[in-house]
Amino acid sequence: MVDRLNFAHYRYFTVLVLCLACVASSDAQRDESPQRRDPDSQQRSTDAMRQGSGDHPRGEIRRSSREDARTPPPIYNDGPSREPRGPGSGPGGGPGYFRGFEPPTEAETKNGFLFIDGKYIAPPYVLHLADNVFTINGHTIDCVPPARGYGGYGGRGFGPRGGEPSWRYMLSEVLTQLSSELVVLCFKDQPYVVLDGSNSYELLKTMTMERGRSVRQLTIREQLPSEFDKSIWDKWMESFEPPGDLRQRAAVLVNNFETAQREAEADMRATRLMNQAAYPLAVSGMVLSVLAVGHLLGGRPHARQRLIGRDETPEMIHSLNWSLLFVTAFSLLDLTWTVLAANAGQMQELNPIGSHLVENPRQLIGFKIGITLPSLALIWLLRKHKRAQAAAWWLCLVLTFVTLRWLMISPLMAPV
């Protein structure tokens, strides 16, 4: 009897040491893993970026694959080709040189929202610049252009220095703003106004919904330039009646904006919940793993024997009950970990069946319960059979390894 107790104590002590070693090794992997990159891979990444940024037509805006699938790229026309200028182009001969970057004079886009003198201009938008006269769809843009800073707009460094307001180097900027689905406002003799994403959403929602309209109008009004005549803005807001096509386009953009906002808020809530539950799950998994490994070390039922017939001894029934208890606990732990990690975007389900269900936690929970509970109930009903006793032991072993795997990767999913 004393020998059995000593062996049991030694067994549990060995299991505890192994589990602590696994957790310590996973923490060490997490500390050593961040941003260790091979110099060759960094060089290859730099070369790929250089290749990706070069060899593009002048004036073409690079876009991601998602933007390419959603919106067509703007179309530029730089006008007629220019001859080389410099000493070689004059009577004296000699090698000539090309002049620096020349801004485009024509462009087209099908996106954005443009208002000229309070009137909505429907897309597509054809932007044209000639003799410093900027027109869009034939409408002259006679608002006050923003002053250019040192080196041109957007830090691109083209054009003469100075702060003179001019449309010459603004065509590409207006095109970029419209292509980004922003709202552009041009009132005669008033400063040029472009609303950012959130203010564009507020203005379009004001035009499509009456609820909270005054609050949104006041919010946008405060974002206008100080030189802008606020009375013109107030009069336009009171008298403007959006046409049907504007209502439809605004409703689509507002719906997309609100959907993206809801998804972002859901992701933040899921990440916060995952971070809060990480420690309790890890502690629970460690305690259950230690107890389960101690139970498994007691030996596989009917090892090296034929699994035929029945065994109704109390020891075998007791061992089966403990195996089923551990299987149930491990299944709940695995389900909780999977749902939280999937909702937080910190894992990808490789199970071909679970990958279709992980996006809907209710379906995943129902599927897990519907498969696990009947299986365990069947094994318990057959608890006096040798095959059922061996099956319960093997299920406990497999789910113990699954939990140990969770303990190893959970530190890697923790926030840095």
Plain-language structure description:
- The chain has 416 residues and is an alpha+beta fold.
- It has two domains: 65-79 and 102-242, no CATH class; 271-413, no CATH class.
- Helix content is 55%, strand content 8%.
- It has helices at 2-32, 39-53, 65-70, 171-179, 197-208, 213-222, 230-239, 244-296, 314-343, 354-357, 361-381, 386-413; strands at 75-77, 106-109, 113-116, 119-121, 125-130, 133-136, 139-140, 183-186, 193-195.
- Helix 5 packs across helix 8 (244-296) and helix 9 (314-343) packs parallel to helix 12.
- The longest helix has 53 residues, at 244-296.
- Mean pLDDT is 75; it is low at 1-9, 26-39, 48-70, 83-99 and 149-163.
Number of strands: 9
Distance between the ends: 50 Å
Strand content: 5-15%
Largest sheet: 5 strands, antiparallel
H and E string: HHHEEEEEEEHEEHHHHHHHH
Give, in spatial order, the strands making up the sheet with the most strands.
Answer: 1-2-5-6-7
Overall geometry comes to rod-shaped
Q: Helix- and strand-based class?
A: alpha+beta
Number of domains: 2
Helix content: 55-70%
Rg (CA only): 34 Å
User: Roughly what is the average pLDDT, rounded to an integer?
Assistant: 75
Residue runs with pLDDT of under 50 for 5 or more positions: 1-9, 26-39, 48-70, 83-99, 149-163
> How many helix segments?
12
